[in-house]
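The following block was generated as part of the benchmark described in Methods. Ligand: iron/sulfur cluster.
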Amino acid sequence: MSVPAALDRHLRDLLSSGQVRCVLGPAAGCGPRGTAHLARTPEAVDRFELSPLACANVLVHLTSEEARRDDARRPVAVLARPCETRMLNQLLSERAIERDELHVVGLGGCRGVIDSRKLRERLPELRGFPEVREEGDTFVIEGEGMEPVSVPRNELLLDRCSGCDISEPLFHDHTFPLADAAPTSAAEAECAPEPSDEGWDYWADQFERCIRCYACRDACPLCYCEDCVLDRLRPMWVPRSVSLKNNTAYQLIRVLHLSGRCTACGECEQACPVDLPLLTLARKMEQEMRELYGARSGFDPEGRHPMSVFDPNDPEGTDFEEQGR
Ligand code: SF4
Ligand code: SF4
Ligand code: SF4
């Protein structure tokens, strides 16, 4: 069993009593990042895994086309770390999911998850999904045919975890601790990255490398429009050929559609095959929204995001009367 006994019992009860029709959460996979798992029977609960390595993009499976068409998935219980409850809040505020179809099993005391790319760089010989133990400020990694290796936590944490300021779920129906609460070390707190202020030359170099695979769009739980402007042929807003001009148009459309909604979860960056610094863009966007509108996405399930609000008294708004419209 890979989840604590009390949580295991709770998930089985939810399924056997019919309170939910399935449970969505992380599981071990064939690679070091794990995978998302949908348990439809109590027996399938066995596969869930809460190791700091099991950090597959779970929430995208709530808003994907397949999920929205599959009524047999709802109501659904979700195993959610604190940052994931922030994303759930944002999805609720947009009515992308309904509260009465969602049972949130919050995972408290989160100290962060491991970036599988950093792990691969540090231990290229690693295969499959290794065992991970947390010992103070160190991760102890034990892979197949390998002696255990100790690596300082701050060398492996996902960038989104550095500087994370929510260690408890923002809301939940039930909550379970991930581990005994442990204070964040000074080393982790110090490495919180600031949003970048790089100029156009830097971003032009980055956008030029984009191969327009759209993996970043497909990985984002908030990119769920059924009719995405990027897929349209008439009119074709962004030509399909890869060039700095077209890539920039794509990135600007993506960023603007997500401004005020993006929760800086970093899943887009994790999905990018050419390692574009997309979390840097997301953090910059988040900073601008806070400074300009005092808005922080995902903290209010009733909230409206600034780019969707029209205020007829806006002093900078269009004066329709003056224009005779
Ligand atoms: S961002 Fe925060 S809540 Fe999310 S996995 Fe990292 S430390 Fe945990
Ligand atoms: S960080 Fe990326 S994947 Fe996450 S919400 Fe923002 S745009 Fe979407
Ligand atoms: S995932 Fe990376 S390469 Fe693919 S479209 Fe997004 S930014 Fe470009």
